[in-house]
Design goal:
With 513 residues, the chain is α+β, with helices and mostly antiparallel strands. The longest helix is centred in the C-terminal third of the chain and has 19 residues. Helices cover 32% and strands 19% of the residues.
């Protein structure tokens, strides 16, 4: 449904009305255990608690937010700081995630807009999205016209027939057409210019922490639709002006507690077992408690481990689908506290290509107040480096050294800087979306009506990805439970679920025919 009024710029954003029902749960009380307090679990807990459900939120870590969480550390000089798993971009297309944040920040004042999304290649090419028009198809045309990575002779070599697929992306049809192809092979089919390929497409594929050879082309094409040809929100984004815990999750925790949610951090759920009366027993930290329903909002490894330890959950086919989920290759986030500032003209965020394992650089004091206070006090800089899709057998210490070497190549003024302190987060827990994997990916619903899944690993059949897929799936899980109790769910929004222009859609259909 388009044309409804919502908190977005794009007039063609799609409104998904909530399932009808009572405004609030009445009659017998209902209880839900939400396992996992990342974005998906927080969305599910919020949506249920606001309708009167008794929610207990279980989280293994001592903090909320999952992969977007933050925790306190002590620096070399005894001062405190907040560490995280790294930079996250809050795009304007993340309607449902932003709706969750508006629960405690109506105007999203805790988010700060970065002025540009700059990209830099090792061969000297630079791209920027600051001056690119936001409305498709002018966005794509403007990027081509403004980008030095597109040369006329390269464009003449492209395969226009194959490129028509980008003009009419439909979900979930896109998976039928392209899920069996890798992102790398699809780009080969397009004959996309090599430099532009790095700067325009592989930025999206590596957002999934995967090499393009390991990523489904359907996911990459969907990303291009969400950010480029399908949405008029543009490619600029916001970031929290304070650490994630301060800006996002501490306020939301207070909101949840006001709605009666019990938050149990540092709590590992060992098993979930169906009961004879249709409920579930949740065993956590040596204690067992019965709940009417359960939402599992875990990462790939956590979900697989819990299901393996809970032999009565699901049927054989569903358990096999869970067991078949894979994680993306390892990635590294290195945060450095330097004794001198980087150059004044360095952006808050820079995407990189061609420098080896370095995928981006953040200068935190440009936008995060905690880092800015440290930089003002010491005269230094807080710099963060990301390396995605690293080799399976890579040595973390060696990879951290390589990232620092590459930083010094990109920002030469850091060569003489002394590293006062450093933290390195080596992780491997993001979902992998391999070619051919979509058909077996589990959805929100499970063989048990009272057991729901949520997370960015879950199939939603909506045009959402990454943090927005996590938030959307959490609301979908809550809405499914609310609907079963006759309670009205929560409205959702997505970018358009098909190409925006009738003429271009027609050309794409002719090609498919």
């Amino acid at each position: 449904m388009t044309g409804a009024v919502g908190p977005h710029r794009d007039r063609r954003a799609v409104f998904l009305p909530p399932p009808p029902g009572a405004a609030r749960l009445g009659g017998r009380a209902r209880s839900t255990a939400v396992v996992g307090a990342g974005i998906a679990g927080l969305a599910a807990a919020t949506a249920l608690a606001e309708r009167g459900v008794h929610v207990t939120l279980h989280e293994r870590e001592p903090y909320l937010g999952g992969r977007v969480g933050g925790w306190p550390i002590t620096l070399y000089d005894g001062s405190t700081a907040t560490m995280s798993r790294g930079f996250h971009a809050f795009f304007r297309q993340y309607y449902n995630l932003r709706s969750l944040l508006r629960r405690t920040d109506r105007h999203l004042d805790r988010l700060t807009a970065l002025p540009d999304y700059p990209l830099r290649h090792a061969d000297g090419l630079h791209d920027s999205f600051r001056r690119v028009p936001r409305t498709p198809p002018l966005s794509a045309l403007g990027f081509v016209a403004l980008s030095p990575s597109f040369r006329s002779r390269d464009l003449l070599r492209m395969n226009p027939a194959a490129a028509l697929a980008l003009l009419d992306v439909r979900v979930p049809e896109i998976y039928t057409r392209f899920d069996d192809v890798s992102a790398h092979d699809f780009l080969d089919t397009l004959r996309f210019p090599k430099a532009a390929r790095h700067l325009a497409f592989e930025v999206f594929s590596r957002s999934f922490f995967a090499d393009p050879r390991q990523l489904s082309a359907a996911e990459m094409v969907l990303m291009f639709h969400i950010y480029f040809l399908g949405s008029a929100e543009g490619l600029l984004f916001d970031v929290p002006g304070d650490p994630f815990s301060t800006a996002l999750w501490d306020p939301l925790a207070s909101h949840l507690q006001r709605h009666g949610v019990t938050i149990r951090t540092a709590t590992t759920v060992d098993t979930v077992s169906p009961t004879a009366d249709g409920g579930f027993t949740v065993a956590a930290n040596g204690e067992e408690k019965r709940y009417d329903t359960v939402v599992l909002a875990l990462d790939t490894l956590g979900l697989g481990t819990l299901v393996a330890r809970s032999p009565d959950l699901g049927d054989a086919a569903w358990r096999a689908r869970i067991g078949g989920l894979r994680t993306a290759p390892p990635f590294l986030v290195s945060r450095l506290w330097l004794d001198r500032p980087v150059a004044r003209d360095r952006p808050g965020f820079l995407g990189t290509a061609g420098y080896g394992s370095l995928d981006n650089i953040s200068v935190l004091e440009r936008w995060e107040r905690e880092a800015a206070r440290w930089a003002a006090r010491t005269g230094g800089s807080v710099v963060e480096l990301h390396g995605y899709a690293l080799p399976e057998d890579a040595a973390p210490d060696a990879e951290a050294s390589r990232l620092i070497e590459q930083l010094r190549r990109v920002y030469p003024e850091t060569r003489g800087a002394r590293i006062l302190d450093a933290r390195h987060e080596w992780r491997r827990d993001c979902p992998l979306f391999p070619p051919g994997g979509h058909v077996d990916r589990p959805g929100v619903r499970t063989p048990h009506p009272g057991l729901l899944l949520a997370g960015d690993l879950v199939r939603t059949d909506l045009p959402v990805a990454l943090m927005e897929r996590a938030a959307t799936s959490g609301f979908l899980a809550a809405n499914a439970l609310l609907q079963s109790w006759g309670v009205r769910g929560h409205p959702l929004w997505t970018v358009p679920d098909r190409g925006r222009t009738r003429v271009l859609r027609g050309l794409a259909r002719l090609h498919r025919a």
